[in-house]
Amino acid sequence: MTPDMKKHQDSCGPTQTPDDFDIDALREKYRQEREKRLREEGSKQYIELEDDFAGYYE
Question: Model-level pTM greater than 0.70?
Fold first, then answer.
């Protein structure tokens, strides 16, 4: 981390959450969005990287 980044990080305080914020509604919204994107095949949806792309596998 550069000194400038450290200085900026140290000067940032915590974010204030509004009192009227409905965290449960937000969690439900994100759950619904997640459900839209989950695929039945799970991790089998991914292909094995080969040839020129094999080095990108983690």
Answer: no
